[in-house]
């Protein structure tokens, strides 16, 4: 299992920031957005074949699938609003 520290280390290397020694940098909206996109591209997207499958999209972020029912409900609401 990857830890938060490991992810900060890897994201920091990719973004040219020392997020392990300076985790407060992620409090800045522009850095937070870059870290979030990095995490999605490197930790989530490669593991999910069908983003319409809420369980599959949740598992790389939350392996315990906590609150999955709420995620499924919110995804359905999103899909309905996009029609």
Q: Helix and strand string, N-terminal first?
A: HHHH
Could you estimate the helical fraction of the residues in percent?
55-70%
Question: What's the main sheet like?
Answer: none
Describe the global form.
Answer: elongated
Question: What is the number of helical segments per DSSP (H or I, 4+ residues)?
Answer: 4
First-to-last CA distance: 38 Å
Which structural category fits the helices and strands? mainly alpha
Number of strands: 0
Approximately how much beta-strand content do the residues carry?
Answer: under 5%
Report the oligomer.
Answer: single chain
Q: What integer value in Å does the Rg equal? A: 15 Å
Uncertain segments: none
Mean pLDDT: 93
Features:
83 residues, mainly alpha, 4 helices, 0% strand
Overview of the molecule:
57% of the residues lie in helices and 0% in strands. The N and C termini lie far apart (38 Å). The chain contains 4 helices and no strands. The model has no long low-confidence stretch (mean pLDDT 93). By secondary structure, it is mainly alpha-helical. α1 crosses α2.
Question: Briefly, what is this?
Answer:
With 83 residues, the protein is mostly helical. The chain has helices at 4-15, 29-44, 54-58, 68-81.
């Amino acid at each position: 299992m990857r830890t938060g520290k490991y992810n900060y280390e890897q994201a920091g290397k990719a973004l040219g920031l020392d997020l392990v020694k300076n985790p407060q940098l992620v409090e800045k909206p522009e850095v937070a957005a870059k870290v979030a996109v990095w995490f999605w591209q490197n930790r989530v997207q490669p593991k999910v074949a069908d983003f319409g499958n809420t369980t599959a999209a949740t598992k790389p972020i939350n392996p315990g699938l906590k609150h999955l029912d709420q995620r499924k409900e919110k995804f359905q609401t999103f899909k309905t609003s996009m029609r």
